[in-house]
Every structure is written in C-alpha cells, then in structure tokens.
C-alpha cells in the first residue's frame, strides 16, 4: 500500500497496473484493500504473461513461498523484478529451507538474484532484485562501518531489535490483538527470525571473519518503526576517534543514511521517510560500542528501499519519489 | 502512592502516618496527591523527631539528595528505615557522587545500610534498608543464577533494558510528554544510568570476577513495567541443562520469582504483582544466553519490594500485603 | 478471567469449579486460557447436571446465543445463576431477536429473570440474574438521578459512549488489530448496539415517559474502561441545585457509585475497581446537562457487578471480594 | 513545524524566512526546534518592519494574546497575514475577552479580518486571514450542510469532540504527561472551550436561527487527529434522502471534504492529509442525525488550511502544496 502511494508520486511512473493473486476477475482497489476507500483503480487477477507483456518492471509484495515459485519465469524472460518478499534473498537453498520452513527456489535461480541493500549494492544492471528485510536493513546499516572496517571483535555482535506491529502483517493474530500489544513488550521468534541468515550473508560478504550474530526481536506497542540496538566489543587498538571516522566516512555521501553522532536517534526522526539514522556511544569501561539504527519499516525497510532500487535500476535520481518528510510530531 | 495502597491492605499495619517535605502545615492526601480524589487522610509536614517518636518504622520515597542528609539521624536512633531512594544504596561515597552528581552521605553511614534485594538478602535484623532500584532489581534477578554459579564469561554481560514512563517520575518533561513518547522509542542516559553502580556492587558481592556490565535503557510507550533483556557468553563446558538447573535451583523456593523456561516472559504477566518472571533461551551457534526478566517497576521495582523488606524486618509472612493479581488483560 | 480472580479472593467461596463448553475431556486452566500460565486448576467439560449437583451457584460467561438455550433447565431446578451474557436481559422475545439476530429463549423464561443492575435492583431472593452489559451499566448509572426524578426532557437523551478494546472480546478481528486501533477512533454499530434495548427497558421501568435514546459507541485505543458522556435538555424549572441534590441523594449511600460533582471523572479513577464515578456540568445557555460516567468495563461492567449480585444473593457484605484499588497511575 | 514542511514543498514559495519572538539574536532552526535535527536554516529575532519589508506574506503561529497586539501594524500596512492563532477570529471584543481571558485587539481591527474556513469562505482579495481553530474546522464542516440548508432543529446541536494530544501544544503539563494520557480519556474545558464562539459566529452567519451549541472536548490517547461527533434533531418533514442530498450537494465540488455516506469515517482516513471526511447516520426512532467529521488537527485544523488560504490569497491551484497522502497504516 505504501509502495503504491510512493509510485503514484514518482515522476518516472506513468502507469501502475495492480495485480492480485487471490482475484479471479478484475476488481477495484477499494474492494481489495478497504483502506483505499473510494479508489476505484482496477486490480487484475495475477497473470505473469500479461505482466511481462504490459509492463516495464514488476514489484512483488507477496507472502513467503510465492515468488520462489514464480521467479524463474521472470528470470528466464530477463524481466526486471523488485521482490519485496524474502524468497529470493538467500543464495543457499538449504538456508532458505532452514529458516523459512518452505521449499526453496532452485539454486541456479537463487544465485542470479541481487541483494538490494540499496545504500551499498547498486541495482544498476541487475534484473532480479531481492529487496532486503526490514530488520536486516536497520541492522546492516548500523553494522556496516564497523564490519567493513574490521573494527569490532567479529564474534561479539549482539542485536536487540525492536519493531512496531506493522512489521507483523495485517492478518489479525492473538499476538497483534490490541489488548495483547498495548502496555506490553513481547519477545518473539528468539534466535529464529528469518532475517538472521540474510544479515549473515551480507556481513560475511563484507568481512568473512564474522562467524554469527546474536539477534533478538521484541514487539513494541507502536505502529511503524524499527530500532536496532547493536552491541559489539571494539578491537584492541581501536579508539573512539577511529569509530567516529568510520561512521563519517561511510555515510558522508549516502543521502539516505544520517550519522547522528553520540546523540542516539529515536524512531520519530525517521518515520515517514526513507532515512536510516544511526548513532553510537562507546563505553571505555566495557570496550563496547552501542549503535542505535532506526528506520521506518514500511519505507526504508520495504517500499522506500524498493523505490530506491527501482531508481538505480532505471537510472532515476536517487531521491526521485523519495523526497519525504517525517511525520511530525 | 502504590506503597500507600499496599500498606492500607497490610494486616500488620494499624496506622499509616503521612509526611511531606514540602508542607509547612497539615494538609489532606487529596490535596497533596490529587489522584487520591476524596481521600481526606491527614498529611503532616516532615518532622524527624515526630516520625521517630510516633511510628515503628518509616518508608522514604524521596528524590535523590534528600535521604543522604537525613539518614544519619535515623541511624543514630536505630530507627527502622526502608529507603526507596537511591541515596544510601552504594557503599562508596565516590561512586555515589560520580553517578548521582550530588554530595554523598558520610561513608560511615553508607557502610551501615543494607541493600535490600529481598529475594536474596534478608532484611531481618537490619535497621536501614536501601530498597533497590527498579532496573537493578530486574537485572540482578535475571543475572543471579548465572553470576552466582559462575556460568558466564564475566566480561560479556550486556543488558538492554526497557522501561515504561512511570519509571521516569511524575514531573512533566519533554521526554515524557505524550506526543514524544507515543509511537516512539527513546534511548536515554546511555552508559550513564545511576542504577549501574548498584548492579555492579551486588554482582561483585556474588562473584568478584565480574569487571563491568554494558547497560542501556530505552523508554517505551507503556505506563508500567520493565523488561531487562540480558545477553552473556556462556562459559566453555557449560551446557543448556546446566543453565536450566541453575535457574531452577535458584528460584524453586523463591515465592516472588518465577522461572518461565524457554517461554520468555512478557510484561503483562507481572504488571500488578510483586513478581519477577525470568526465562532464557540459549543459542548454541553464538554460545550466548539471552535472559528476559520482567517486573512491575512500581511494585517489585519499588513499593512491592519495600513491603517485602518490611515483612522480613518485622517477621511477617513474606506474602503479607503482596497477595496481588495481575492486571488482566 | 477477571471473575475467576475476584472469586479466588472472596471469603465466602470455598471451591471454584471451572467448566468449558468446548472441552470434551478435563483440561487445565493454563491450557484453556493461556494467560493463566502455570495454573493447573482443572477445567471440566460443560455438564449441566454435574453443575447443578456439585455447586451452590453458577456464573455464565458465554457468547450470545448460548444461555438462551440452557437457562430453562436451571430455572426449572431453581438453581441460582448469574448470567454475564446478554441472552436473558430482555423481557421481550421480539426485542432480543431484533437486536441480537438470534432466536430468543421462550418468553416465560425471559420474564422470570432479574435484571441485576446491582446498585438499584437487589438480587436478594432472585434465582436467575441477568448481569447488565458494560455500556448499559455506565449509562444507566449516569442517567438514574435524572430519569428517576424526572428532571430532563425525556426525548432528549443522547449518549456518546467510548470503550476500550477489552469490551470487544479476545477473538482477533481487523477492527481490534493493533495497527487499526492504535492512533485511531472508530465508531461502530451506530444505532445498532445490543445494549440499547436493555438501557431502554430499565429507563422505562424508572420513568415511562422516556421514548428512546440516541446511543453511539466509539472504540478508543485503550484496554480497559468505558466513558459514557450523556447529554440531555433539563426541564424548565429545574435548576443546577436541583440537579446536584438529585445526584447527591441518589448516590450518598451507594458504596460503588461516587458522585464527583462538577469535576468530571476520567477513566483512570475507576480502572481496577468496581466503582462507577459520575459527575456533571450544566450549561445554562443550552439548558443541557452533560454527565460523564466512567467504569472499568471488566469489573463494574461485568465480573465486579456479577460478584456484587452474588453478594446480594447470598447475603454477603456488599464489598466482599470487591475491596479493590485503582491501577495507579 | 508542519507548516514549514508544507511550505518547503510549495512550488510558489521560493524563500521562507523564519522569525521567533523569543530570540534576541539570529539562531538556527535545529536550536529553536530540536526536532529539526541538523537543519541549520537561520531563524531571526521577530522584527515587524523587517518582516513587512522582506516578505510577501507572513504566517503567525503564536500563542493567544500575541497577534492581538501586533496585528494592527500589519493591517495598517495592508500586508498579507495568515494568522493561525485565535486572536483575530472573533469580531467581538467582548466575546474574545470572555473566552480567552485576555484583552482583545481594538474592535475596528477585529472587524477587518477574514475568518478563513477555506472550503466555504474564499480568502481571495483579503488581507488579514484568521485561520480557524482545529475543533471549529471539524465541527463546522460537519454541520454546514445541515445548518446552511436549515434541516435541523437549531437549538438541538450537541457536539462531542475528541482530540489527540498535539492539539494541546508542546509544553509539558500534567494533563499531557504520558502516564496521564495513556489508557485514559479526559474531558477538559467543559462548556468553556475557546473554539465555541468562533463556531457560533460562523454558524450564525449561515443561519441566524441557531441560538447556541452544546460543545464538549475529550482528550484521547492519540497524537494527531480530531473526531467531532455531532448530534441534532432533524426537522419534521426532512427525511434521510434530503439529508443525503444536502451532504452530496455541499461537498461534491469541494476537493478537501469527502462525504463518506453512512460509513462513518475513522481518524486514520485523514491523518497526514488536508482532508475532512464526513459521514452521517440517521436514527428514525429518535429523529436524530449523527454526523462524524474527522480531520488531522495539524493539517486541516491548522497548517494545511493555512496553506489552502494562502493558495486562495495568491491564486495558486487549491491543491498546491497539499497533495498529501494518509499515513498508512
């Protein structure tokens, strides 16, 4: 839904065709997604031949287990895809099956996809872009300066990530019932969150010394927003100035990532935007760095980064369609 | 306020006299604390001679910097005190001044107080009980089985603690304004929270190998409740069974601490009670244990534990006045 | 669940037997209601013969459409029932069918029940007590002084009632999903709420001039609590003093209803208690009285009033099991 | 703050100069309003001569009591002003003093201002525009079809308005402390809200039969958004079709007001936009219409409507700078 809002304002998008797997006959957007009250835009039943024939690119916003089945057809046709699902993010069939508990796409297709962490990996020239998960985005952007520059003990990374309920999908469940979420904190999927392997895959592509990360997720009573609080032991010989310069160097020229210094960011700074704000404090007593990385899970963590990838793919200005302002207050 | 509610229902308490530092003439409770609408109980101006003469014990619920000045008089009189403030918790003048930014009570008095972590240190026979801080209580009860039994690498402790706004006091500040708290997560006092030294003091009394802890606090949009998420590297040779048995042995006979196994507790399980619920998961890949420890900050983290100490001091049944039920739902 | 908590602390209740319609074999409370983690109390399959034989009274906390079928058997046996459902509150079959969209119990049984608005209608000597709905309780207690004393224009009553989500039940629905409730206000069942006919039935028993009420319900992002804001035109010749004296006279001796004067009550004053707080302001310009009436929907609006009725039925002190304190803050 | 965000994206605005009454020397936006972290835009001390000389128009976003003093100078200079404060909305000195408890601007200036309810009163050709209050906007847009077409009993209007906390300003007060707002509903300023007289002034300009309105405000635990629930007795002879056609006719060509039919709007439909959504249900039994009117108090209720007035004043397209999308979800 947020993706549709963004694309409507994108200067390079002249026509958006909407397709839905669950439809058997054309419908209207307000029927399919009631929150779009009054919007009579046509929504068509999913049809891959029609999609490939009538469009220049497609965005998939499907549940796990869907694009693993349909991706090969698009790949075979060299048709540009930006896939917001997790199905094609992992290069390993075994890892996918282990973490998603579903059959993976064939390995030859998994290996052709591009992991679209847009601030580090350009989508230019790619065909099938696996858009990163929300937790993965916040966590990787917090860790990049440290891991890429080899500044922390590689086995010491601990991530305490907190997310609002929009990360949990729209289907009503007991865990997202208002009376359960409100006035509560709930740890879920301990050591089992499916974003762990894509974080590891990317971290190891940056620094093969990282053996594993400790990653926990807590559901907090807010709608939008993720905060990844990241802890790591700083390597002997690395001082605070070196840490600071690593963050500054890494993010000086990245439009969508703001380094906030020792003022750790809060979630309101980024909700409504495609920004990731990261700051850190260093504790000399424990030799531990604490990084706080915040994003809007529906924008930078999903639709916003998808548009960022789309812009790279089609050579639009990086901020095209993403010149957004925070929700104040 | 919560303390007053508890003591009203305590079978051993026949008369509660209320005193307020800010008064110069007697007033009524509903005037001093408007939420006690209609309660015309007399509140007297603070007068230490009168307190000592007319009562059997006193509870202090004052801001930092108050009881450091008045404690010596009560100690000299051997008058029982349960002090909910942080002033007399630390045995070291230097530590107090460093973390509280105020002058400390004289060392000879600081050394006479009892740190009342009631599930581990009995108040029986004590005179001046320094009631622990809310974060300290949640964190220490989560760490006790691990530190007392020497099961974790002592320099690997990381605590990511989350608290509702009642922990921040009733005075209106920008950080606790509804529009700032709502839909937000805010890290505050990074590496500077004044509960760090009392946690360290108690941990080192259990195990002098612990050099320091990494401790961070995040304000979450709830009223009551603390969750301390605790991470530590498990020592080589310690397996999950040993971890489990340590928690079971430590808490089997402790009425107010419930070990929840690998089902990590959420905050709603304890809000409204004097209970601390603790559970853990062990990650074989990272050799890291994650403990979640939850309390109601106003009960177990303040007034409830104060009554628990009061019961120990005066030989009441440990559950007297604390037979509370969770707020459902 | 709240009822079970209350009865556990009731001095006159020696044994609570739990029964569940959905069970076919005995189970444990923690299995049936997961929030009662660790509580291994036996829950038995529903069996009316066993209930009548092994108990002194029964509380029904069933969905609409259940007790209309089972009530006759208990009535025939003259077995005391406190029914928290709406099935037996209306004396008219036609009204029940119209508002509940289900078949009603036979009229001869409907006419034998007692509408248990406990602060006005004593349950003493009754057998089948239909415990009032939550909105009905808040609204009737706000209107009683005005309607009983004929102080308002009978066709001018407008009720704007607001409720937290616990009033909507525990089953996850789109309307109670956190992301839908949070930061939102949702009017639901406009002019169609099933508590309207029981309010009318009781109002007309007090004053047959009241032809109808305008009653609207709004879902607000809180867990517990109802506020009924009630508007009515004051009759010519009735001044503010007369209105005040009517509220004072009506509620002076009612333990569970507090008249707060022109300080209109807020919801926090009553959450956690069996109290209803009512206050009013009178607008001389519009000749309109505005009454605010607040209750905890799970206590005064359900389980608390059920215990109040139980106390009347079995001659216990009216506050037995209901000596509760507000959730502070 | 929201106004500044809107103007930054307005195609007709080439330069925004910021001024602050409290400054004595130039400062930066991030210093004056910390939420604009990193924004080093200059903020100048307030200086009316400089404002008039260096700008084409000015927006005032001041507290009550400020523009009553400074407005005459701008009026004398025929300099375009859009005043978001309440100081210049009422044509009557006596009314201002009664409701605002401050001295009013001289009557000759009060009578020269334009009440800028932008969907009904065009600002074209005006000089001093008093931008309406948030509650007034929601309420007037809900009532306009009924009052302008004389469809309701003029003395029967009752407004139960609910607002989030951003309506209460940014200064921390006890009433807006998170612990007081959260899980609570608080009626405030009963019969005393200062938006009552501007609503009356506008209603009477539409229909001089309306003698008064009953208007109550409740603070709800959300950040942004107002819902005005409006009740009125429908005149004899007016049926539901007539009511429907009045709403349709009134709003068919008004871009920023959407008539939602009998599906009453919720707040999420409009938060983030300059829209007002209005719907109604008619109760044949009570002859009462219930209108729900929702707006984003910071946009349609303040900055958005100010830009709408600015567009009318300077002949921009009505949607210029206001092509906003709702915050989903």
From TrEMBL, chains A, B, C, D:
Family as reported in the entry's similarity comment: Belongs to the NAGSA dehydrogenase family. Type 1 subfamily.
Upper taxonomic lineage: Bacteria, Bacillati, Bacillota, Bacilli, Lactobacillales
Primary subcellular site in the record, as a coarse category: cytoplasm
Active site: 134
Catalytic activity from the UniProt record: N-acetyl-L-glutamate 5-semialdehyde + phosphate + NADP(+) = N-acetyl-L-glutamyl 5-phosphate + NADPH + H(+)
Recorded name of the encoding gene: argC
Keywords, in A-Z order: Amino-acid biosynthesis, Arginine biosynthesis, Cytoplasm, NADP, Oxidoreductase
UniProt subcellular location: Cytoplasm
Database matches in InterPro entries: AGPR, AGPR_AS, AGPR_dimerisation_dom, AGPR_type-1, NAD(P)-bd_dom_sf, Semialdehyde_DH_NAD-bd
Functional description taken from the UniProt entry: Catalyzes the NADPH-dependent reduction of N-acetyl-5-glutamyl phosphate to yield N-acetyl-L-glutamate 5-semialdehyde.
Pathway(s) where this gene product acts: Amino-acid biosynthesis; L-arginine biosynthesis; N(2)-acetyl-L-ornithine from L-glutamate: step 3/4
EC number: 1.2.1.38
Name of the featured protein: N-acetyl-gamma-glutamyl-phosphate reductase
A Pfam short name: Semialdhyde_dhC_1
Ranges for domain Semialdehyde dehydrogenase NAD-binding: 1-128
Gene3D superfamilies found in the cross-reference section: Dihydrodipicolinate Reductase, domain 2, NAD(P)-binding Rossmann-like Domain
Organism of origin: Lentilactobacillus rapi DSM 19907 = JCM 15042
